Amino acid sequence: MALRTMKQRAVFLDKDGTLIEDLPYNVDPNRIRLTLGADEALATLYATGYQFIIITNQSGVARGYFSEEALVAVETRLRDLLAREAGVPLAGFYYCPHHPDGVVPAYTRLCSCRKPAPGLLFRAAQDHNIDLRQSWFVGDILNDVEAGRRAGCRTILLVNGHETEWVLEPHRCPDHLAVNFAEISYLITAVDEAVPLYLAS
Questions:
Q1: How much is the average pLDDT of 124-136?
Q2: Which residues contact 47 (CB under 8 A, 6 or more apart)?
Q3: Would the pLDDT of 196 be above 80?
Q4: 16, 39, 140, 144: which one is catalytic?
Q5: Residue 101 is among the residues annotated as catalytic for this protein
Q6: What pLDDT digit, counting tens, does each position of 155-195 carry?
Q7: What is the 3-state secondary structure (H, E, C) of the chain?
Q8: Which of 14, 39, 140, 144 is catalytic?
Q9: pLDDT (tens digit, 9 = 90+) per residue, 43-81?
Q10: Is 14 a catalytic residue?
């Protein structure tokens, strides 16, 4: 009988405003920069056995701001940045090009992949043999939190001023809050190693 492959752990990352500096609808690779501290944090988490997968809404496709093909160069740039600056591979890049108010008919619709729906996480978990309950979703708005929680992940909200509405419902309450990537790395490591969380005096 074949041995069952052990499931993997992942940190799912929102792209704009979380992993990289927020430049709305940017697809110019030369303007993509990692968020301060992301390189060291991801290197630490990779050493503990996590793989990294980007989950991002890209409604600019539906809105006609750029083509879906433009995201190929974005993914290439992100893979290069993570390898060069953090020394880690990017396991997956998943995006939703849809929006119900778009102007490009092929992409103008409701879907199961646009966050806060969890469709992209389920797809990634299937593709990469990921245990969602042992994984994390990190994002800068509550739609990210909701997508992560609906998929069964633990969640961290990066509090950087990008969430402005704060509509809190059961699926939109993050497990933890962090103000930077150093805290994100600490929280994930502490929880997984069952280290008591505390506030520095």
A1: 98
A2: none
A3: no
A4: 16
A5: no
A6: 999 999 999 989 989 999 999 999 999 999 999 999 988 65
A7: CCCCCCCEEEEEECCECCCECCCCCCCCHHHCCECCCHHHHHHHHHHCCEEEEEEEECCCCCCCCCCCCHHHHHHHHHHHHHHHHHCCCCCEEEEECCCCCCCCHHHCCCCCCCCCCCHHHHHHHHHHCECHHHCEEEECCHHHHHHHHHHCCEEEEECCCCCCCCCCCHHHCCCEEECCHHHHHHHHHHHHCCCCCCCCC
A8: 14
A9: 999 999 999 999 999 999 999 999 999 999 999 999 999
A10: yes
Among 88, 86, 103, 143, CA closest to 120:
143
Which residue matches tokens 């994390």? Answer: 136
